[in-house]
Design a protein that fits this description.
332 residues; Rossmann fold; binds iron/sulfur cluster
Length: 332
């Protein structure tokens, strides 16, 4: 018989926290695992609520940070995208494979997740759930207590680790039952269900698609920079990012491996440039259009490269002139 231990995939939201607590009340030892991707939304993916619950339950979180290999999966997902650039089926397979590896290391019987049947059209329907289990090698070993009566964790039942009458049959998008459960567990300040993954947002997805289509050798820095600034595509492999506030300007100015355009004689944003040097003047004109001062004002930039700096002056023009080059200025 397998050990009475489960790996809990926890996102920081209510459903996965409830699933973990239900499994713990069933008598399982729990190893909570939180996976951080480069596309976690810094505004919404707050795990403060989860941390409080873990402290109360005396559980220690394992955090797994994924990088390039996850981005490569997002670039060419086998099962395609949802409404934006979210490859939810492939992403779940990716996460489940990580959980399976930890499951084997820990000698656990399976994994527990907060998935609810038909809550998400793309990745939480019966067919997708079956594919995800098969492809990750976890068929019959995934406990989804919230919908467990419908999605039976067959092997865990056969091994006598779970009884069917311990499972719930929640289905669909309503949160009513989860809210009742939260109350019964004494949980109050849980986060809203929306948000958390930037891949689901159209403005962000546009920037990522642009990188995938136009940058032959993008780096992880490039991917992380998609969370800030206005992004301009000047040509294939040539890109400009313009800061939108002081904090973004600070981040851009401290990023290594890029050419920086810093206004010298007026207030204005920092520009971060990479690519064809022939496009540098165009980049300076774009950054100048966001600088203080009237049209026609001569903006002087310090152009900083890794090994040297120089000054360049351009005339301030209307922002609208460069609109066609703007990929996106928003993240959400
Ligand atoms: S919304 Fe994002 S994190 Fe969630 S399954 Fe889809 S791609 Fe993965």
């Amino acid at each position: 018989m397998s050990s009475k231990k489960l790996i809990a995939l926890v996102s920081g939201g209510l459903d996965s926290t409830l699933a973990m607590l239900i499994a713990k009340r069933m008598g399982f030892d729990i190893v909570p695992v939180h996976i951080v991707t480069p596309f976690n939304d810094p505004c919404c993916r707050d795990i403060g609520f989860l941390n409080k619950v873990l402290e109360r339950e005396k559980l220690r979180l394992k955090t797994v940070i994924v990088g390039k290999e996850y981005v490569d999966m997002v670039r060419s997902p086998k099962y395609g995208y949802g409404r934006a650039m979210n490859p939810c089926i492939d992403c779940r397979i990716f996460f489940f494979k990580i959980a399976k590896k930890i499951m084997e290391e820990e000698g656990a019987a399976g994994i527990v997740t907060g998935e609810v049947l038909d809550q998400r059209p793309k990745s939480q329907n019966l067919k997708a759930i079956r594919i995800i289990e098969e492809e990750s090698g976890l068929t019959g070993r995934v406990l989804r207590p919230l919908s467990g009566k419908i999605l039976k964790p067959t092997k865990l039942i056969e091994e006598g680790l779970i009884r069917e009458d311990q499972l719930l049959s929640i289905r669909g998008r309503s949160r009513k039952r989860q809210i009742e459960l939260a109350r019964s567990f004494g949980l109050t300040d849980y986060p809203n269900p929306s948000g958390g993954c930037l891949l689901t947002y159209e403005p962000y997805a546009r920037k990522l698609k642009d990188v995938f289509e136009n940058d032959d050798s993008y780096t992880m820095t490039e991917i992380y920079l998609l969370k800030i600034g206005r992004h301009f595509r000047l040509s294939r492999n040539t890109k400009l990012i313009v800061g939108k506030n002081e904090e973004e300007n600070r981040i851009l100015e401290s990023t290594v491996g890029y050419i920086k355009l810093i206004p010298k004689n007026c207030k204005g944003p920092v520009g971060l440039f990479r690519g064809d040097p022939d496009k540098l003047e165009m980049a300076a004109r774009i950054v100048a259009s966001y600088c203080d001062g009237p049209e026609g004002f001569k903006v002087v930039f310090v152009i900083e490269r890794d090994d040297r700096s120089e000054e360049v002056a351009v005339v301030k023009e209307k922002k609208e002139i460069f609109r066609d080059l703007l990929v996106s200025s928003a993240t959400r």
